[in-house]
Design the sequence.
């Protein structure tokens, strides 16, 4: 409680006001699946338990819809108290336009510089010495979620890499299973494709491709292989794929109808809600077991400037709650993600999260999120292309690769 | 009123039009870059697919809505019993949110849960009907839902038009021994030009801005096979933070609407001229 007293005092001093009364903080987020709701309730409950201030929940399904709603509210002059975004360039113009609450005093008081690790997680929020957002978790976007009973039924071992999965897929198909479950929304397709890029090209070349827009790599035969693998996976997916949500897709693996889904670690929350055990019912596998990696996507919360000092005090209090060790542990266990700080009690963590934390320890395994380099516009063009490539089996691989290279060449 | 109308419509349209020539990202800016956004727009595969889809969806759904709507109106005009009940049934789909309409149709057409799975469950293992999951047929799935949704309105407007026709005309046609179907087609139909034009314009505008139906049914997929211009615009001015490109697309969407309204004005003007001359 002492810390919150400090924060509250600081907030009031900061604003030159002495009146502190209850306020509502409206939070826009896109956590709507079962596992996600369990996680976001941790934030809401812990914040409400602190005192008079209230968490007002505005959940909007699908990230792009939630972000669009936030942007419209901001442009209309009625921003929410806080809003979820992905770390990267999604909010660079909001910072430039001075619409965000500066969290630097709070961050300095609590020493966020020292506690948030690895650096690539702090960077998107810590810009030019100022803190503009609160990182709440580290999500690795690329895991293979495998159903152990499904692979037993097919009589093959669990896959060790994506190409190994392609090799074993016919066995699963013979056993009447869906070898590869893929949700048809364009972001899911692009995320799976992004994971395969890392597994096939390696971190170094992948960074040169997406960060430096290296045209030699974009046109290389190694990159062609990524498209080929992706098309192979398409052959082993089911006809219900188009438009399917990620959690409905996870459900296919969870109910042992499908072998593998490539999805971020948030899928673990769905297995948890369904009461499944890692190592018994399902397995979380790196896309390449020989060279495992974790990507460092995640979620951050932006706090928008408000006229009411009471709301601002409550906003700072919420920011502090989100990053506190206890809430970090509870939230991330429910969410399936990894905490942004090292000093939290992870005794509740399950095998999958422990595996992720183990891989995270070696900086050589840490992959920077592509969102840090690519604007939403560029990512959107990639999503359109990959979705088209996935849906249209007649699209030549050479054409798709050429267009991918062009998107990178013209990226802003 | 006039001020509001001018302020909201004309000024906003001009503003959008101007922004389409700028490099605006998330926030409007006035850094003019000429026709660059239009060049990018017309070389974007997704936009080309969207425009193509609009034509397919528009021609098929407007055509069917007008024809079926007129037939339904004629049917309702036969002094049938329970007319109110039937009118409600036909109008009901329109009263529902397109999001709900879309979801219902999506479930009906879903290969794993819907019609296909049910018929297969009856023992027809080879039965295959899942238009929404195939890139080549998904747009026709949308057309079916669009017709189901929109036909009631066409019917209601045209029924009002039919009822507005003077009963003396009918009597005269009867005396002259003209068959009923001929009267409907050659005498009554031309007389209800206003109602038909209204129904047509309403359908056209509805097609140009079709958005929620697609979002609920296919989200523009599979791949980009059912993308529509309105989705392109909304996505670019919000999540993709490229207002310039979005406004260029919006301006392209405005063109056919302006042409249609111009056409309507022209037809009305000509009708007035004729009336004055005669």
Sequence:
């Amino acid at each position: 409680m002492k810390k919150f007293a400090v924060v509250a005092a600081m907030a009031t001093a900061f604003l030159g006001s002495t009146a502190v009364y209850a306020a509502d903080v409206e939070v826009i987020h896109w956590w709507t699946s079962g596992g996600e709701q369990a996680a976001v309730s941790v934030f809401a409950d812990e914040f409400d338990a602190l005192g008079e201030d209230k968490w007002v929940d505005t959940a909007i399904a699908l990230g792009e819809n939630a972000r669009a709603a936030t942007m419209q509210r901001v442009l209309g002059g009625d921003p929410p108290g806080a809003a979820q975004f992905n770390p990267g360039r999604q909010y660079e113009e909001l910072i430039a336009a001075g619409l965000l609450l500066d969290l630097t005093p709070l961050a300095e008081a609590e020493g966020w510089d020292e506690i948030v690790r690895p650096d690539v997680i702090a960077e998107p929020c810590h810009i030019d010495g100022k803190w503009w957002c609160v990182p709440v978790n580290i999500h690795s976007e690329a895991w293979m979620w495998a159903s152990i009973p499904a692979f037993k039924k097919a009589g093959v071992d669990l896959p060790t890499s994506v190409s190994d999965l392609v090799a074993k897929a016919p066995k699963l198909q013979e056993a009447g299973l869906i070898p590869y479950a893929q949700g048809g929304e364009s972001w899911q397709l692009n995320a799976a494709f992004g994971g395969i890029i890392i597994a096939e090209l390696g971190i170094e070349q992948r960074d040169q491709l997406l960060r430096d827009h290296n045209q030699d790599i974009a046109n290389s035969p190694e990159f062609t292989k990524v498209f080929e693998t992706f098309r192979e996976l398409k052959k082993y997916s089911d006809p219900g794929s188009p438009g399917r949500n990620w959690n409905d897709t996870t459900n296919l693996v969870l109910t042992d109808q499908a072998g593998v889904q490539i999805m971020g670690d948030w899928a673990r929350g769905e297995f948890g809600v369904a009461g499944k055990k890692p190592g018994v019912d399902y397995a979380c596998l790196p896309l390449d077991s020989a060279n495992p990696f974790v990507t460092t996507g995640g979620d951050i919360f932006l706090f928008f400037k408000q006229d009411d000092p009471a709301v601002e005090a409550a906003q700072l209090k919420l920011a502090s709650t989100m990053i506190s060790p206890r809430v970090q542990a509870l939230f991330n266990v429910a969410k399936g993600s990894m905490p942004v700080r090292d000093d939290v009690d992870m005794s509740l963590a399950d095998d999958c999260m422990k595996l992720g934390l183990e891989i995270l320890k070696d900086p050589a395994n840490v992959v920077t999120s592509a969102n840090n380099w690519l604007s939403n516009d560029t990512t959107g063009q990639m999503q359109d292309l990959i979705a088209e490539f996935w849906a249209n089996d007649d699209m030549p691989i050479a054409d798709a690769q050429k267009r991918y290279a062009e998107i990178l060449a013209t990226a802003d | 009123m006039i001020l509001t109308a001018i302020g909201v419509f004309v000024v906003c349209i001009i503003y959008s039009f101007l922004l389409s020539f700028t490099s605006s990202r998330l926030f409007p800016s006035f850094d003019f870059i000429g026709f660059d956004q239009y060049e990018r727009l017309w070389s974007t595969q997704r936009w080309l697919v969207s425009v193509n889809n609009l034509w397919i969806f528009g021609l098929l759904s407007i055509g069917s809505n007008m024809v079926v709507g007129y037939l339904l109106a004629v049917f309702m005009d036969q002094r049938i019993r329970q007319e109110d009940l039937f009118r409600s049934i036909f109008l009901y789909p329109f009263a529902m949110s397109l999001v709900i309409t879309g979801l219902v149709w999506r479930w009906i057409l879903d290969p794993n849960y819907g019609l296909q799975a049910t018929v297969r469950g009856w023992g027809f293992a080879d039965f295959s009907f899942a238009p929404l999951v195939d890139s080549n047929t998904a747009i026709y799935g949308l057309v079916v839902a669009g017709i189901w949704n929109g036909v009631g309105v066409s019917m209601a407007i045209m029924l009002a038009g039919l009822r507005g026709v003077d009963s003396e005309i009918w009597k005269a046609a009867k005396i002259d021994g003209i068959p009923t179907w001929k009267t409907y087609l050659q005498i009554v139909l031309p007389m209800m030009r206003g109602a038909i034009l209204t129904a047509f314009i309403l359908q056209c505008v509805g097609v140009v801005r079709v958005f929620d139906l697609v979002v609920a049914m296919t989200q523009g997929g599979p791949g980009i096979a059912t993308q529509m211009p309105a989705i392109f615009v909304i996505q670019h001015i919000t999540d993709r933070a490229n207002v310039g490109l979005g406004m260029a697309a919006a301006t392209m969407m405005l063109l056919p609407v302006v042409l249609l309204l111009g056409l309507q004005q022209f037809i009305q003007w000509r009708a007035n001229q004729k009336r004055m001359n005669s």
The radius of gyration of chain B is 23 Å. Residues 45-277 of chain B form a domain with the MetI-like fold fold (CATH 1.10.3720.10). DSSP finds 13 helices and no strands in chain B. Chain B has one domain: 45-277.
